[in-house]
Predict the structure.
Amino acid sequence: MSVAFLRCARCGDARLPDADGSMTVTPNGRSGAARCSSAPLVRRGSARGCGGRGHGTNVAFSDVPQRRIVMRRATLVLVGAVLLALPVGSIWAASSDCEAARCAIQDALNQQCPCDAATNHGKYVSCVARLRNNLAKAGTIPINCKGAVQRCAARSTCGKPGFVTCQIPTDTCTSGTCAANPTVTCVTDFDCGTRCKTKSSVDRCTAAGGAVGTSSTCCADCAPPSP
């Protein structure tokens, strides 16, 4: 017999089947117990009367969810096997290629969606998204690099008057070495590594212990094109 999880909506939560196939249900807000007779497997959402004095609904769920769980587990195993089969080097190379692809279209982005002229951050990000999609359809950038382009637009100060990029230290310099990694020598906390965030003002950046960045985006600057 397949285990069907039964629930009496107003009687209470059903327990596991008894030896005789029936269910013991504790009524909500009532003393004693009602007996929910074993019901045939039916479609999800269908119901039949609950045992006892007709309290609530005795819902018997079909085996469909169980089959779905098995299929999902099989899918996860297959996906995991595919990922394990991929060379680690190729994964890192794909990430590096996306950075190169982003920089390759940076001039087009600057011309079609100029950051300095943006008056609204959302509209700026939408402009980048449209151009990015068109370039991807034309084969100028790989489809899998669309996200990298969009993230740089989202992590920018374009269309945000007064905002700045802010480099915030991720570690503390103590006695000439970084506290979390003593093998790294340092003079200031910034030598131990930083993370970039956008702040609404210079004061908020310095108050967070950061230094104002020189770029309008938290993404790495692209090298100037070769002459």
